Amino acid sequence: MNQATRKITPQQILVVILVVRVILGLFYVTQQPLWQYHEADFLSAVRSLRDEGHLPVLAADAGPDLHNETQPPLYYFVLLPFVATMDNNQVVPAGVNPPAVCEGFNTNLTSIVTTTADDNPLHGAVALGYTLRLISLLTSLVAVIFTYWAGRVLFPQKSYIALLAAALVAFEPTSVIVASEINNDNLILALGAIHLWLCARLIQARGSLLTNLLGLLVVAVLALLTKLTGWLMLGISVLLIINVLVQMSRQRASRRQKQIALGFVGFLIVAVVGIILFNIVQYDTPLGRYRGLEKLVGTTLQNLPPRHVVNMTVATLQDTFAEYLNPLRVLHPSTFMIVIYSALLVLGILAGLYGFFQVIRSRNNLLLKSFALLIVYALLIIGLVIFRSILNNGTPDFVNIMIIISPVRYYAPALPALGLICAAGFAAIQLPRLPSAGIAAGAFVAACWLAVSAAGLSVPLSNNQLRNNAVMSQAEYQALSGVTAVQATQPTDLPQVLGYQLQTQAAAGMVNLDLYVRANQPLTDNYALQTDMTSGAQTSSCRTVPVRGLYPTTRWQPNQVVVLHSQIPNCTAPLDAPIAVDIQWLKSTSNNGLASTQVVGSPVSLGTINDTLALAPSCQANIGVIGGSLKILKFNSPPTVTVQSQPVYYLPSVTWYAQSIPPDAKSRVYQLVNNDTGAQLQCAGAPRQDTYPFTKWSAGETIYFDECLMLLKPDTPKGTYTVSVGVKRTDRTYLNAVDSTRKPIDSGFIPVGTLQIQ
Question: Considering the entire predicted model, what is its pTM?
Fold first, then answer.
């Protein structure tokens, strides 16, 4: 057994890690729908480079760091040969699905519209998309390999540190997902790992000085042409070269060695000047896409209170931690599992800190150099991400809305260094009777991350299975029993309803509807479906997208029958029998990433329900409805405010659910009425402190924390106030309002909570 174990070399274990990572990555690449997040933006930029000979240029009034398509150019030049040879200029994505409007039921599983071009055999832009994803996967593998090599240089006697670090980088779930998408994060990750390896060789005096310096500068310049973090990598290179020059001045270095070092300093200067000239030609500014950044940095630093730095640091790291949890959250874990998964990250951080303190105690000069490199490398990148958050938010006080976006991929160049810090820390944990306990704990963390990454595939795999199960042949449909045929004549250019099955759960207020539909001809338009249940003057409606967006009408084949399963809740009021059930097709149109719908054709009757349908208890609780479609779900503000000698800010806030958007909705008004004196206070404006007007809302959207800033002065009457919400029309009258029981409120103001001013 021991002999067999000894035959397994570190290189063989690394190959196993890479093979597992490739298998995992291939599933993510092929099973996730194309054109997620910014994938289409990257393709658009390369198309511009191919067709116009240059990358898109920022608009004259654009600020720094705003547009994905104006990032540094290296990644686009890497993709250019593939786009030039494979692209057929198909519009990608074909569109976006309108959101489901069904009280939280039948929600879309994808926002991207697919077409018959997504079916096999793949060609054109679709085949290109998967090819570009494979490039991302390959570059992520380069990062794993060079993480291992950097570990072997920094910790030459402990190959297990390098292997553990490679496994941590390979299997961290958010990185696995990012590596399956078209983006430049994987390129900067790979360059970061290569750069770290070259830095390690330089400080440990491994290999040729000429080769190390040349590689260091080339990689740093390439990183500079990839993302903003490349400037930090360039800075680290400069510091290391200066360190080499200082050491040479203290030692008896040969004249040739000094000439080589000084030559690289000259090369560095030329390279930076070249990049500056490129930016001037491309963007009319030395900073390229970061035009105006120097002014923004200067203004921010002049008005930056220390408290804000602390708040933004905490908020940035909290957002990163939340994003770290996302791959697990999609699996709907228990609270216990979330705690365990969180503890894995904490365990890695604590292990890294323990390893660092152990090295300080040991006073091992080589290990101190290794840890110093890794820690400085990681802290610089982390600091840049935090500073970016500070720049994005200026210097907000406590009444401003902060926008924090700091996913794990922002730290890409630091991930190899962080992996090595954690791995070295685990290796330093050696119990008296369990000398390998630390490495075992680190392997456990990597294994857990691998398990979560693998389990995450269940989501796209189950979605694909759901799509496949929704399609049957005409013969299979005709063999079904219990299906009520639809005899009504329907326009041939719309999807055809062949039959349906209705199952009513009267007490639960739910109706299960299976529609069997077909396209008489290939459909170029995307259609949604609205189901109405009407009893007298009451109608409960539900808008859904075919197969929850996984199989839109643009992908249907004329020889297929598609099964559309929906759960229709009654969330209006108890409906008395008979209840008419009708469906209506809605044509969906995409514009600037948003989908709008319009009625086409006539309603198709599906008969009646002869049971009284209760109000579904599973519907979203609401305080009231304004304008017939704006539901108030929750009051978010604190119940008490203390006002003494200084003015105090109060932020009334509610959460909305928009079934549709009243076209004449103009402003939202919060009204506070003193229960004893009748004194009134008001705060009016567009939602979310005038940042998110009704015109930007989408049907089916939940709008969280619609705040309005109120200043309560010291002379504000004390007492209990009733807080109400209304919505003004453009003519300054109020939209009609009803309470949670559908009782009309003449004033248009819905009471949502109370405030005690003391």
Answer: 0.85
